[in-house]
Amino acid sequence: MSQIMIVLVDGLNYSAWLFLSAVGLTLIYGVMKIVNVAHGSFYALGAYMAASVIGIWTANGYPPYLSYLALLGAAIVGGFVVGPLLERFLLRYQYEKDEVVILLITYALFLVMEDALKLVWGVDPYFISEPYEYLGNFSIGDMSYPNYYLLMLGLALIVGLVLTVVLNKTRFGRMLISVIHDREISAAMGIDVKKIFILTFGVGCSLAAIAGAFTAPTISVTPGLGVEVIVLSFAVVVTGGLGSLPGVALAAFIMGLVRAFCIHYAPQLELFVIFSVMALVLAFRPRGLFSLAEARKI
């Protein structure tokens, strides 16, 4: 029984990370129909900003229990400053072009941002383990786990709950759903589609940065951090269904548990198990586990 619990804890932790890493990507696609390859760079931006903020926080002896708010604030500022600027002055003028063109533009943004991160923070690794160590550990059987796992799981649940409430229970959410189904009719009905787009892109980029910021204390923050993230996030989003919030949650949960099982019982499969799950799902459901309804063209 203890071994099963260990697999479950590892799986839930990785599922929470996958969800946090991918939810911003699916949000942007759901509303704007953009596969934002630069998503990985915003993840890296959040990690680097977290490294800088926690470094300053620790050096000045600020209360360690407030460092988690500092992580959150750094990520939101980074995502909501850079993201809307890119949408306003670059992407806004590309929406009428083919989706492949926009995909290539976001890929170019990814390359530019990766080099910009190197120019600002250099190529040396950053280590900020203080928030990770401060919360202590809990035990399951003979295994000890950091309580930081619980923080990541709680953050994923809060993000999912807030997005669900906003989308289904608020006026802004109803406008968002309207834009998702038909942006032209929405604009004709008086909805400011440009404002919806810039807010959506800002929120999506901030969610990627939040994932990076809260992952930073558990890893070495180095150049190229966003490459793996965009690949894994895309796998999760495609498996769940492009633009589907429940889909990305379910896909992250399944992939996290399957990966944890492989690590403990068949470690030789760990490297490609996530992509195997994606291939298996798409073989039977080419549009993913869930998919948004598309407006019927007349």
UniProtKB/TrEMBL annotation:
Cellular localisation: Cell membrane
Q: Which GO terms describe its biological process?
A: amino acid transport
* GO CC annotations on file: plasma membrane
Q: Which Pfam families match?
A: BPD_transp_2
Tree of life domain = Bacteria
Q: How does it sit in the membrane?
A: Multi-pass membrane protein
Which keywords does UniProt give here? Amino-acid transport, Cell membrane, Membrane, Transmembrane, Transmembrane helix, Transport
Segments passing through the bilayer: 12-30, 42-59, 65-86, 98-121, 148-167, 196-217, 229-258, 265-284
Q: Which GO terms describe its molecular function?
A: transmembrane transporter activity
Similarity-based family: Belongs to the binding-protein-dependent transport system permease family. LivHM subfamily.
Please give the name of this protein: Branched-chain amino acid ABC transporter permease
Organism (species): Zwartia hollandica
